[in-house]
Amino acid sequence: MPSDKPIVGIDLGGTNMQIGVVPGGAGADKTKLLGRSRSKTKADQGLEAVLDRIAQTTHDACEDGGLRLEDVRGVGIGAPGAINPITGTVLQAPNLQWTNTPLAKMLEDRLKVPVIVDNDVNSAAWGEYKAGAGRGCTEMIAAWIGTGIGGGLVLRGELYYGHFMTAGELGHMQVLPSNPPGNRSVEHNCSRTAIVEDISRMVRSNHDSMIYQLAGDNADRIKSKVVAKAYADGDALTRTVVDHAADLLGAQLAGIVTLLALQRIVIGGGLAEAMGEDIVGAVRRSVRARVFPEKLREVEVVCSELLDDAGLIGAALLAEQRLDATD
Q: Do 175 and 110 share a structural domain?
């Protein structure tokens, strides 16, 4: 039976975790968080330490909203990598170095409330579909550009998982199969990580760029905001590298749109949040130049509306939906 109790949403990344308490009930504004908290993931400390940190940060988010964990209905968590959402198992998460990890059960043992697990970009896609830039359509793909590249598909108004329950792994599709190993996939060529590596390599080859000045001559500080600033300020090298990555990503998305005749593409993730229309527009031009038939040039390519909160809101909404179905 549907409940008005709030739901905790967790967006778990390889570097950071963000946790928010989302209002429950059909009429609630899911974008108005009741409480929130965040912390570093510190995956290098091992699985148990990460789970303990998730539990503590969840308690912190509830406390921020004047709640106890006992006051919430359940927890939804979006985790990176291939997930079996039925069993709540992380099948393979390279960023966390997890394999066949029963995340739902392990968190339920710590939190003592129901836990629903899904892929992080599936969660973000669902959040955008229900409460953000995906509203009003029934067929869409979310493409998240950050440390890696993630994807999530909504078909006929439902998240699409496929027979093996892992659909949406956009970043691991091969975009340049003739490249050397380790440089063939969408993620290897189009992520923020790949863009920074390409810029750094070309700077070392004596190409001019202001990006190191913006980053204080420290490559580790070339984050999304620095790339966005260099691009907006007209840095030629940054523009060349980013536009190339956006063109490759658009080519891959154009193939998916041609295959499935999707209505909308939502672009999100740290780099898209920082760059906005600069990168979304480049992806849009690439997609529309390559789709077939010409009617598909009407596909909408838009930026995330929920931005940093898409994953945690979507995780909470997925948890609420599944708990409604089982109560």
A: no
